[in-house]
Each structure stands twice: as C-alpha cells, then as structure tokens.
Amino acid sequence: MNRLLRGLAAFAIGLVATVVATQLATRDSRPAPGTILGTLDVPKYCRTMYGERAQGIQEIKSPFGWLCWERPKQVPIRHRIDFDAACDTMFDPGAYAEPSFSVSPYLWTCHAGPRPDQPSAGGIGPPPAAETHAGRLEAVSSHTNRARGSVS
Question: Which of 72, 83, 87, 138 is the most buried (most CB within 10 A)?
Fold first, then answer.
C-alpha cells in the first residue's frame, strides 16, 4: 500500500510539473516587439488575398511601388497594398512593415508589433479632456504634432 501511494504521488508530481512547464513555455512565446519576423513575400501575399492567379507587380522601382494585380474574367484590377496589414496577415497579428533599404531598395521586412513609434493601447484615442476650450485645442494640436513626428 505504501509503495502504491508513493507511486501515485510521484505520478501526480510529474503530471503537475509537466503542465506547469508547458504553461510557462507557451505563455509568452511571441517575439519581442521590433524582432524581425522575415521578408514580406509580396507576390505570395497577393495570391493569399486575391487568389492563385493574382500577382504582385512592382510598377515603380521603389518599396512603395508594389501593387496586387488580379484578372477576374480577363479584366485587370489593381489593388494598393497596406504593408502593415500584409505583415499582419502573413506573419503575426500586430506585425508591422518597414522598407528594407539596407538589404534591397525594393523589399519590406516584417517586425513583431507593436510599432515602437505608436502609443500603447492606453494611449490610443483623443487626448485627455482639458478644463478650458483653449487648453483642449492645445492638447489636440500637441497630440496631432506628435502623430506627425514633429517635436513640440
């Protein structure tokens, strides 16, 4: 009986340790913000979004020159690409795109989000209410300038 209880106790401890280790390993397996996830395969993204016959075409020699083309019923349709949305679709929810000028002037690299220059979820939305109308206008102006990248 004593041997049976020790065996059951050992089994229970092993089971608990396995569950805890699995939880810890999978709890935060997302890459750190800014981590490079890979290069965006624009033609593959276009096929994912618009079907196997769609193509990623670079109309202008620039990372911003890519378009998705599809030809339903032989009528060409061009689609602009939201590169952040493409990284989100092809790699990881919340991923964002950056031009890969150091690798190629025509490629995009996808990074784990959130984007460092964007506010956290708590910072999204209108600026805090001010006590006076003038203060409110100043807060809105300050918020808008930060969003445009200017320093005030």
Answer: 87
